[in-house]
Design goal:
Layout: E1 4-7, H1 11-24, E2 27-33, H2 40-44, E3 47-52, H3 63-72, E4 77-79, H4 89-97, E5 101-102, H5 107-114, H6 116-125, H7 141-151, E6 155-159, E7 168-171, H8 174-192, E8 197-201, E9 207-215, E10 221-233, E11 236-242, H9 249-265, E12 270-278, E13 284-290, H10 297-304, H11 308-316, E14 333-340, E15 342-343, E16 349-350, E17 353-354, E18 357-359, E19 366-370, E20 377-378, E21 385-393, H12 396-409, E22 411-413, H13 419-427, H14 429-432, H15 440-445
Helix pairs in contact: 4-5, 7-8, 12-13
The structure holds adenosine-5'-diphosphate.
Adenosine-5'-diphosphate binds at residues 131, 156, 162-166, 168, 200, 202-203, 206, 208, 232, 235, 275, 277, 287-288, 438.
């Protein structure tokens, strides 16, 4: 087993990983930018090293600074968390070159997963259902128009190297396609550094359901259940659940098998997520592979009892996948609410600043993953996620009422947060009935 792990991340996920290390008796090394000097991950780690000034490009994305920190502190492994360098194949290679084990899949798997049109091609070859779309990248506007005509409008243009729900454009007719194509291409270039885009049939009112994969270095993969992530605002997840409600047992079982097949199709190693869209008739389509731990991993942990961060560490250390031999059971229902430093009354605009006071909810079935505390200043440079409230109930109904109870107890003062908006979602009758799809927020709240 590893002796010392460097955590190449910040905020709640860095804290989460440090906790797993501590429980495993592994020393942890935190890295931080000067804006995060007082952050909880710096306090909780055994050692901490400053890697640069606030902008991510000079700190959390600075590969050389991070590798130097790992070498100086004699770490034998590195956990990238999510975001930043977590899905950067060159970074995995740099870690290996320096004798540091990257806790995640190897570079080839990261590259293939990150290149959406290549991943789709691998799925088609393995007869995994994908959304009808272009075979690979779109060359030019004429090619886009021809593809869209064949598939039928509406279609969605997507950045081949996109992520985080960004870089997507819906086109309802040829005129829109003509104007959108160059916009989508230049957006893709400016946001993801690559101009490549591809095209898919736009599925109306789908649900986003993703499947957790655990695989060892021999490629032995299993599925640890699914997460329903349809509550999104502008393609960004706000609330997630496990298991997915309103899904027939037959479909659930079938997609789980396809998820394992998808993992095998790319020779997946370590933990990853296979995302599917599911339409109103329970037709399902692979959309992408995320080769890292997901923000919403705790809902799976809560209903399966599996510590997914520890599993990532075990798999990276070369241990055999224990779940090949034992069944994973799902117990009850879990909901995760993302608490962002955003003003939900004013277009979800960022609301960094000083937290003057905060009270965390406690009591049965409540877990909070966070790095905030009274007096802490949320820096303006990074992601707005400041806490995840994760609630367990013996049924979905109990999880919903307990979530509302926990949200009522939760108070964060000094900045605006998404707590009031989460209350609106959970109080919504259609949400409570489990009648949801990816346009739920737009339809119910006009956002
Ligand atoms: P990202 O990597 O940016 O998260 P995804 O491919 O996972 O992109 O898609 C994010 C979200 O965009 C999905 O959850 C869904 O809401 C929407 N979406 C993506 N593809 C389609 C599609 N073909 N039809 C309808 N909605 C889609």
């Amino acid at each position: 087993m590893f002796k010392k792990i460097l955590i190449a991340n910040r905020a709640e996920i860095a804290v989460r990983i440090i906790r797993a290390c501590r429980e495993l008796g592994i020393e942890s090394v935190a890295v931080y930018s000067t804006a995060d000097r007082d952050s909880l991950h710096v306090r909780l780690a055994d050692t901490s090293i400053c890697i640069g000034p606030p902008p991510s490009s000079k700190s959390y994305l600075n590969m050389d600074a991070i590798i130097s920190a790992a070498l100086v502190s004699k770490c034998d492994a590195l956990h990238p968390g999510y975001g930043f360098l977590a899905e950067n194949a060159a970074f995995e290679q740099l870690c290996s070159k320096n004798g540091i084990v990257f806790i995640g899949p190897p570079a080839e798997v990261i590259s293939l997963s990150g290149n959406k049109s290549m991943a789709l091609e691998a799925m088609r070859k393995n007869r995994i259902p994908v959304i009808p779309g272009s075979d690979g990248n779109i060359k030019d506007a004429r090619h886009a128009l021809a593809c869209a005509r064949k598939i039928g409008y509406p279609v969605i243009l997507k950045a081949s190297f996109g992520g985080g729900g960004k870089g997507m454009r819906i086109c309802s007719n040829p005129r829109e396609m003509e104007s959108m194509f160059s916009i989508a291409k230049s957006e893709s270039a400016s946001s993801f550094g690559m101009a490549e885009v591809y095209l898919e049939k736009y599925i109306k009112k789908p649900r986003h359901i993703e499947f957790q994969i655990i695989a060892d270095n021999n490629g032995d993969a299993v599925c640890a259940g699914e997460r329903e992530c349809s509550i999104q605002r502008r393609h960004q997840k706000l609330l997630e659940e496990a298991p997915a409600g309103n899904l027939s047992e037959r479909t659930r079982k079938t997609i789980r098998e396809y998820a394992v097949r998808a993992a095998n199709a790319v020779n997946y190693k370590n933990l990853g997520t296979i995302e599917f869209l599911v339409d109103e008739n329970e037709n399902f389509y692979f959309i992408e592979i995320n080769s890292r731990i997901q923000v919403e991993h705790p809902v799976t942990e809560v209903v399966t009892g599996i510590d997914l961060i520890k599993e990532q560490i075990y798999m990276a250390a070369g241990l055999k996948n224990p779940y090949k031999a034992k069944e994973i059971t799902i117990n009850g229902h879990a909901i995760e609410m993302r608490i962002n430093a955003e003003d939900s009354e004013h277009n979800f605009s960022p609301s960094p600043g000083k937290i003057t006071d905060c009270i965390f909810p406690l009591g049965p079935g409540v877990r909070i993953d966070t790095f905030i505390r009274p007096g802490f200043i949320i820096p303006p440079f990074y992601d707005s996620l400041i806490a995840k409230l994760i609630v367990w109930g013996s049924s979905r109904q109990e999880a919903v009422s307990r979530s509302l109870r926990a949200l009522d107890e939760f108070s964060i003062e000094g900045i605006k947060t998404t707590i009031p908006f989460q209350k609106k979602i959970l109080s919504n009758q259609r949400f409570q009935e489990g009648n949801i799809h990816t346009h739920f927020i737009e339809e119910q709240f006009g956002l």
